[in-house]
Structures are given as structure tokens and as C-alpha cells.
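Thought: the user wants the 3D structure for the chain below. I'll pass the sequence to the structure tool as-is, report back what it returns, then summarize two notable features.
Action: structure_tool
Action Input:
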Amino acid sequence: MYTDFHQQSGIVTGAGSGLGLAIARKLSEAGVKLALLDKNPALLEKAAAQIPGEVITYAVDITNEAAVKDVIAQIKTQFGSTDILVNSAGITGMTNIKSHETDTDNLRLVFDVNFMGAWFTSKHVLPHMLEKNYGRILHIASIAGKEGNAGMLAYSASKAAVIGMTKVQGKDYAETGITVNALAPAVIRTALVDAMPPEQVRYMTDKIPMKRCGTLDEAAAMALYITSPQNSFTTGFTFDLSGGRATY
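Observation:
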């Protein structure tokens, strides 16, 4: 239904696998020219082979602002503009540990990837969107950012920060034709989830009334709407994808 992406281009971070790859594939099927960003060159190469439309790839560490700024400038030169930004790159960090046992360096790393990375990309894409008075930014947050998951201080707090940034950016650019929204999944079956301790996954899944993980296709379909031209009056909002877990 949401296929009005004529001549649009976009950026997807964390596009080498999981949710980022699923969203990139869905956008490409709708006709969006894509720049795929990921830290892992091998994953990027495999991902690009799975995308049906026009793609370019950049192996970049999104925690490095100078590198992010340079890549976004290159993408603008290649595509002429950036209409869509999807920030899907993320890590969980150490889990299944009490707050007082959280490693400070690991917490900083999680914030650097999950929050600072999303801020760097949006910071340097927004001026290009403002030139056209049009844009769609989607930050991938998490239900953990709304409710907090025990044993996941770094991840939960970093995703709460992403939700806070979404609210601010939505208001900052509400009159410009640019929408900024977030998506807060519960548990989506990805490699990130598969890498968690079974007890951590069970803790999260038990809280979902549907008693199952969400699928990549379900998440990608919602992302397609959020980044579509049809989504023109919702901004600063966090869309839930939680199987009934979210209550606000």
C-alpha cells in the first residue's frame, strides 16, 4: 500500500543483518535508492546482494562523528539528497546483571552505539532534509526504553534516550515537512536476540501477551509506513510493536 517513494533515497544503519536488513529490503522493494551502513564489511556485501534495487554500501563506525559526517556527504553527492534515515544499528551490551554490577565502559559503549550513533547520523542528515523541507527519520528504540528491562540497564537507558531524542527532534522540525519518529519493538527474532542468554529472552517474552516474538517482516512493514510520504502528520511519536505488552 505504501509505495509512493518515487525517486527517493535513504540511509539505513545496521543494514548488514537483522532488522536493518529487513527494513532496507522493504524500502528497496518500494523503489527507494539506498545507502547501507554497517561496521562489518562482510555483512554489508552479503546484505547488498539481497537488496533488489539500487544500493551503495559504506563500512563505517557510527560512533565516530567525523566518519559519519564524511559518509553522509558522500551519499548526498551520490544520490543528490537523503529523504529517509533509519537508525537500526544497535547493541545490547552486557545483560542479565544488576545495575550496581554494570560495567561502566560497557555502558558507555552501548550509549555510543545506540544513542550517539543515532544522533550523529540525524545531526548530519537533517541539514540536507531541510534544504528540501522534506524528510522521514526513524529511530529504532525498544519497549525496554519505555518500561526498563531488569538486568539490562545500559540497553534500557540508551533506548530511553533515543525515545527522548525522538520527542525533541519531532518538535524541533514539526513545521519543516520532516517527521521524526521511533519504533519500539518488544522481542523481534534477530541475531541480537539469539545472542542473549536464554533466561533474558524468556524474561522478555513472558511479558508479551501474545507469548511470541515479533517477526522481521512485521517490523519492516511498520517501518515502511512510518517512513512513507503518507505518514505526514505523526511526529515525535514512538510506535509500539509489542504484541500487547505496551500499555502507554
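Final Answer: Structure generated. The CA atoms of residues 113 and 163 lie 15 Å apart. The chain is about 45% helix and 15% strand.
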